[in-house]
Specification:
Helix 1 links the parallel strand 1 and strand 2. The strands form two sheets. Strands 3, 4, 5, 6 and 7 form a five-stranded mixed β-sheet that branches. The relative contact order is 0.15. About 30% of the residues lie in helices and about 25% in strands. It is α/β, with parallel strands linked by helices and about 150 residues long. The chain contains four helices and seven strands.
C-alpha cells in the first residue's frame, strides 16, 4: 500500500493496506485513522491477512516480485476468494531503461520489471483477465502496464 495514497481515491467499507516498509505503514496510520483504515507491515508473499477481500490492488509492487513470488501472492488471493485483482506497475521507458532499472533495483529492490503481457500471463493462471493495457503518461520516464483479473 505504500503510504496509503490509494485510500484517497477509493471509499471501501473497510480498507487494508499491506507494505513491507514499516516507515510507509507508520506514515499511513498517521494519515488515515478510524476503523475503516487498517495498515499492516508485512511481506505480501507471506503476510496477507486471513480476511475475505472483494478487491485487491497491487500498485507499484510487481517489479519487486519474481514470477514465482507473484504466483504465490495471486494464488493466496485466489484461495481467499478475492473477486477482483487490479495490478498496476511502472516499467522504465526504453531510452534510459537500463539506468532506471539499475536505480530501482539498488534503491528499492525492484529488479523484476514485467510488461503487460507478462503480468497478464501470470495473473491469467489464477484469474480471468477482464482487461489489460499500458498507460503511457506524457513526459514520464515510465510506462504503466495494468491488468484487471476477476474470479
Amino acid at each position: 500500500c505504500g503510504t496509503g495514497e490509494l485510500r484517497n481515491y477509493i471509499n471501501p467499507k473497510v480498507y487494508y493496506g499491506l507494505d513491507i516498509n514499516s516507515n510507509f505503514i507508520n506514515y499511513a496510520k498517521k494519515r488515515f485513522t478510524g476503523k475503516s483504515a487498517n495498515f499492516i507491515a508485512g511481506d505480501m508473499t507471506t503476510s496477507i491477512p486471513n480476511i475475505n477481500f472483494d478487491t485487491a490492488f497491487l500498485i507499484s509492487a510487481a517489479h519487486h516480485l519474481t514470477e514465482t513470488q507473484m504466483e504465490t501472492v495471486l494464488k493466496t488471493l485466489k484461495d481467499k476468494k478475492v473477486k477482483r485483482i487490479i495490478i498496476i506497475d511502472g516499467v522504465p521507458n526504453i531510452r534510459i531503461s537500463r539506468f532506471l532499472e539499475w536505480l530501482d533495483d539498488v534503491l528499492g529492490g525492484g529488479g523484476y520489471f514485467k510488461d503487460e503481457a507478462e503480468l497478464a500471463k501470470i495473473t491469467g493462471k489464477f484469474f480471468k483477465i477482464e482487461s489489460r493495457g499500458t498507460y503511457k503518461a506524457p513526459y514520464s520516464l515510465y510506462r504503466y502496464p495494468f491488468v484487471v483479473g476477476i474470479s
